[in-house]
Write a structure and sequence with these properties.
The complex is a heterotrimer of chains A (364), B (295) and C (353). In chain A, helix 2 crosses helix 3 and helix 2 runs parallel beside helix 4. Chain A folds into two domains: 220 residues, Rossmann fold (3-Layer(aba) Sandwich), CATH 3.40.50; 127 residues, Beta Barrel (OB fold (Dihydrolipoamide Acetyltransferase, E2P)), CATH 2.40.50. Chain A is elongated, with a radius of gyration of 24 Å. Chain A contains ten helices and 20 strands. In chain A, 42% of the residues are buried. Chain A is α+β, with helices and mostly antiparallel strands and 364 residues long. Helices cover 25% and strands 34% of the residues of chain A. Chain A starts with 7 loop residues before the first strand and ends in a 6-residue tail after the last strand. Chain B is an all-alpha fold and 295 residues long. Chain B has two domains: 50 residues; 220 residues, MetI-like fold (Orthogonal Bundle). The two termini of chain B are 39 Å apart. Chain C has two domains: 169 residues, Periplasmic binding protein-like II (D-Maltodextrin-Binding Protein, domain 2, 3-Layer(aba) Sandwich), CATH 3.40.190.10; 149 residues, Periplasmic binding protein-like II (D-Maltodextrin-Binding Protein, domain 2, 3-Layer(aba) Sandwich). Chain C is 47% helix and 18% strand. Chain C has 17 helices and twelve strands. The chains are: A alpha+beta (364), B mainly alpha (295), C alpha/beta (353). At the A-B interface, strand 6 and helix 2 of A face helix 8 and helix 9 of B.
Chain lengths: 364, 295, 353
């Protein structure tokens, strides 16, 4: 397929409902062919932003451009976007073929060409031969595929998806995540994807835009967002993390009475949080120079299949009342060495994995 | 061994299931008897009576009379014409109203619904006479229109078909709106959004998506209105001015005229049978139409 | 929805109480139940006859309205018990008597020795005389309205809308009178389907001008009051009452078709003997004179005139006053007993054309 994807530029988009800001001055660029995820908790404004892109919501002010064209005042049916809704929104009075062919019929495409494009779209979503099925004869996953086929059959340059996988069970959802991502790569459509599932966002996206309280909090690659969340909210929202309260004075961070080394320059004094990903912690037999160390007692140890989750209560004298979560992979070598509940342990965290965020930011 | 056990389980399970089915069927028997007694016996009695002549013996005279006098055919035609027209105008007025109500917030929709239902709290007779007062030659509407110089001669609104229709549409409108509104509320609003995102203009999205999905409610409401209209008495009697004679009115006047149930029962039987035929045809049409969404 | 439910509950309770009170009342020995036509007519009966007569006998009389002789027939045939006496036209009683649903009246108890000739029958004790007349709107025609039936049927001379009854009673006669048949020959002509057809054809000539087919005395009085039609057939007393209420209405006795109304007893009435005595009481001239004050339906008892119970000016308004009666024809009950159903079906056919 030719590279005909469009980039999207969102500038200063604001939408209010009375006193409530659904979107507050959001600016965001989606490059052509990119898979961008709008991630946020419910009520954060992510769906509102998607609806602004689709044209169902008119912002109070701001600009939305598809390529070079300003579309903010264009009604939805003239925007030429493909859209997949949360509950699929298939037309129950049409069969699969008619559903998928609907956009083509609207565009006055001839019957033969419609048939060809419908078959192509159904093949793309691996539903070949199911064209004559009624919608209510399909499983949830199949309906999802029909909705997708319908959204791509007319080869739109932009594809919007509003939590399309939320109604599927976990296993199917994870399969579909990968499939959708592959489909995107094949079709090369600029895709804006809305989800509240951070794992889904990490799995699928080129970039993630984290949205909360109607504002864009961070826009970055999944890796960057995971490694360097820009504030405490994101640190907490994305991935598992333990946040330890720390104070910074003269560029030096300390946790209770112990000093901490970090991977970044701390030019500001004040209250910070040390973001600790559970899988980055390890049991330190001896103290090393390239790591921070924490002393504590194992409070809980939970078997979770592929990994063991441990909750470690840190020494209150040194650290105050704080605890850490540590995840150890369940390989045969680690199993025998696992400390039991009540054991004293020393935990290590590499300095490269030690990342601070300001406490006042966003808050959680 | 495991396979065998599994089979035994299945057999006893299905036996239990059967027994449960019988138990539930047994529980519904008194209800079935009641329904049978309340529907089958009176209708059977109606059929029986329609074959009783004036002298009390078995006879076809009540049906012969209907064939011999042109009045009966005309009355049935009037009955169906008025019922169809009432249904038509109810759709014309009720569909946009139900659509409007389905698009606004539930709070405002409930307020509208109260407005729709308030006429139900007034007696049918009162509403019918109210229309007479409003619409007659020297009634409120004609007087105002003449005073404003819109018309010079009063318009004949009542004592004719139009008066009957106005009164009946007013009374029947809620019966159309209630099922239609419920149906429209149940339509997934995302479907219409999906249509417009896929390139349908609002008008196109309405006709290709919303309207087809509202057809079951529309048909249900229309059938209720139509069937209720067939038996209407008071409104055509008062607002029709004797020019609109419907089956129910002839049933009543036949009781007066022949002093026997038979003459009236035969009319009732014919009306019932014709209505059943219409319902049967309608049910075929509906199920054909709904094939797309049911099953 | 809740207020509605409460309302229904209330209505149900009220209805139950109502039924209960009615049924206990009906058990009382000295209570009679009488039904009539409602409206101005029954109001006059109630104030002038029913209640004073009940008081004089020391009994209680409960009143209700009903829909005519068919109600009596259905009641008797279904074995129900709703009333002991009904007020009915002579024709209605005659057909009820023929069907065997009425008690024969005992004229040793009921004194009709002073009745005008023919104003009582086996099943009906005549109480008042009324006329079917052609009434016109004086706003439209002034004093020169349709004073004969020929005028009523002449749409060139008297353009305007008309109303006739939605039942055949006393309507065919008007057509034949308009067609030039002499009063005394009307029922001879009507004594065949051809004759009936002749009358119906005459009505057909003015059918486009008939705006309303009226259903009841109340409805034709209202039609004239509201100016809904310019002329109508109808009962003289209703028009007089409407005129008192300010309606612009007049009629001429030359169009009058006299008929009479009386009381009958349904077969098997619980209070048959008391009903008989009560009818005897109601036949007394003083009640008839009192009733005639409320509506211009003349007494059947000659004594009213002989004893001078009515003022002369009032007496002259009665259909049965000799000066008025001489212009009029009298409705023949026997013809209706013979031809009613056939004529009625043909009439309906004409209406639905």
């Amino acid at each position: 397929m030719a590279n005909n994807a469009l980039n999207i530029s969102i500038h200063n988009v604001t939408k209010t409902y009375g006193d409530f800001y659904a979107l507050r001055d959001v600016s965001l660029d989606v490059t052509s062919g990119e898979f961008l995820t709008l991630l946020g908790p419910s009520g954060s404004g992510k769906t509102t932003l998607l609806m602004v892109l689709a044209g169902f919501i008119n912002p109070d002010y701001g600009s939305v451009k598809f390529g070079d064209e300003e579309v903010v005042l264009k009604p939805p049916h003239l925007r030429g976007i493909g859209m997949v809704f949360q509950n699929y929104a298939l037309f129950p009075h049409m069969n699969v073929e008619q559903n998928v062919g609907y956009p083509q019929k609207l565009r006055g495409v001839s019957k033969e060409n419609t048939k060809i494009s419908v078959e192509e779209a159904l093949a793309t979503v691996k539903l070949d031969g199911l064209g004559h099925r009624q919608v209510d004869e399909l499983s949830g996953g199949q309906r999802q595929r029909v909705a997708l086929a319908r959204a791509i059959v007319f080869k739109p340059k932009i594809l919007l998806m509003d939590e399309p996988l939320s109604a599927l069970d976990k296993k199917l959802r994870e399969e579909m995540q990968i499939e959708l991502r592959q489909l995107h790569d094949r079709l090369n459509i600029t895709t804006v994807y809305v989800t509240h599932d951070q794992k889904e966002a990490l799995t699928m996206s080129d970039r993630i835009a984290v949205i909360n309280d109607g504002q864009l909090k961070q826009l970055d690659t999944p890796n960057q967002i995971y490694r360097s969340p820009s504030n405490a909210f994101i640190a907490d929202f994305i991935g598992e993390s333990s946040l330890l309260s720390a104070t910074v004075k003269n560029g030096i961070a300390s946790l209770g009475s112990s000093k901490l080394k970090g991977n970044q320059k701390l030019s500001k004094d004040g209250d910070f949080l040390l973001v600790i990903r559970p899988e980055k912690l390890f049991i330190a037999s001896k103290k090393a120079r390239d790591a921070n160390h924490f002393e504590g007692v194992v409070e809980d140890s939970i078997f979770q299949g592929e990994s063991q989750l441990m909750v470690i209560k840190l020494d209150p004298k040194t650290y105050g009342e704080q605890s850490l979560r540590m995840r150890l992979p369940n390989s045969s070598s680690t199993l025998s060495e696992l400390p039991g509940i009540g054991d004293r342990v020393t935990l290590g965290l590499k300095i490269v994995d030690s990342y601070f965020v300001e406490k006042s930011h966003g808050g959680s | 061994m495991a396979v065998l056990e599994h089979n035994i389980n299945e057999v006893s399970l299905s036996r239990l299931e059967k027994r449960e089915n019988y138990t539930f069927f047994g529980l519904t028997v008194p209800y079935l008897v009641l329904v049978g007694a309340m529907i089958v016996i009176p209708i059977g009695w109606l059929f029986f009576l329609s074959f009783i002549g004036r002298d009390g013996s078995f006879s076809f005279e009540n049906y012969e009379r209907m064939i011999n006098s042109k009045a009966y055919l005309r009355i049935f035609l009037t009955t169906f014409k008025i019922s169809l027209l009432t249904t038509f105008f109810c759709i014309l007025l009720g569909y946009p109203l139900a659509y409007f109500m389905s698009q606004i917030s539930r709070k405002w929709a409930s307020l509208c619904m109260i407005g729709v239902l308030i006429p139900f709290w007034t007696s049918l007779l009162v509403r019918t006479y109210a229309w007479l007062v409003l619409l007659q030659k020297k009634g409120l509407i004609n007087n105002i229109a003449i005073d404003l110089g819109i018309i010079t001669e009063p318009i004949k609104f009542v004592h004719n078909t139009s008066g009957t229709l106005i009164g009946m549409v007013h009374i029947m409108l809620p019966f159309l709106i209630l099922p239609l509104y419920a149906n429209m509320r149940a339509i997934d609003s995302h479907c219409v959004k999906a249509a417009s995102s896929l390139g349908a203009t609002p008008v196109r999205a309405f006709w290709t998506v919303f309207f087809p999905l509202s057809i079951p409610g529309l048909l249900a409401g229309s059938l209720i209105v139509f069937v209720l209209c067939l038996g209407f008495y008071v409104t055509p009697a008062v607002l029709g001015g004797g020019r609109v004679i419907m089956a129910a009115m002839k049933i009543s006047s036949n009781i007066e005229l022949y002093f026997s149930w038979g003459a009236a029962s035969a009319l009732g039987v014919v009306l019932l049978v014709v209505t059943m035929i219409i319902l049967f045809i309608a049910s075929k049409l509906v199920s054909l139409d709904q094939l797309g969404q049911r099953r | 929805m809740k207020p509605f439910l409460i309302y229904r509950k209330f209505a149900f309770v009220a209805a139950t109480l109502g039924v209960a009170s009615l049924s206990t009342a009906s058990l009382a020995e000295d209570t009679l139940r009488i039904v009539s036509w409602g409206g101005a007519y029954q109001k006059g009966q109630s104030v002038g006859i029913f209640q004073p007569a009940a008081k004089a006998m020391g009994i209680t009389v409960k009143e209700d309205t009903y829909g005519g002789i068919s109600d009596v027939k259905l009641m008797v045939k279904s074995g129900a018990d709703k009333f002991d006496i009904f007020s009915s036209g002579a024709g209605g009683c005659a057909s009820g008597g023929k069907e065997g649903v009425l008690e024969k009246l005992d004229y040793s108890v009921i004194d009709v020795s002073n009745h005008l000739p023919g104003m009582y029958s086996d099943y009906c004790a005549g109480a008042d005389i009324f006329s079917v007349v052609a009434a016109w709107n004086t706003d439209t025609y002034g004093d020169n309205g349709p004073r004969t039936w020929a005028d009523f049927y002449d749409v060139k001379k008297f353009p305007g809308t008309r109303a006739m009854r939605n039942k055949v009673d006393a309507q065919l006669e008007t057509a034949l009178l308009a067609d030039g048949v002499p009063k005394e020959d009307i029922y001879k002509v009507l004594d065949s389907e051809e004759g009936i057809k002749r009358a119906l054809d005459k009505i057909r000539t003015i059918k486009p001008h008939i705006a309303v087919w009226w259903t009841s005395g109340a409805s034709h009085a209202q039609l004239m009051k509201d100016g809904e039609v310019d002329m109508t057939t109808g009962w003289n007393g209703r028009f007089d009452v409407a005129k008192q209420d300010g309606a612009k209405v007049a009629y001429d006795w030359k169009t009058g078709i006299m008929d009479w109304e009386g009381y009958g007893i349904p077969k098997g009435a619980k209070q048959k003997d008391l009903a008989m005595k009560y009818i005897a009481e109601m036949m007394k001239p003083n009640y008839m004179a009192e009733f005639a004050k409320y509506i211009t339906y003349g007494p059947t008892n000659k004594k009213v005139y002989e004893l001078g119970l009515m003022e002369d000016s009032r007496a002259r308004q009665m259909p049965s006053h000799p000066d008025n009666a001489k212009h009029q024809m009298t409705l023949k009950t026997e013809w209706y007993a013979k031809w009613r159903t056939i004529a009625a079906e043909m009439y309906t056919e004409m209406m639905t054309e």
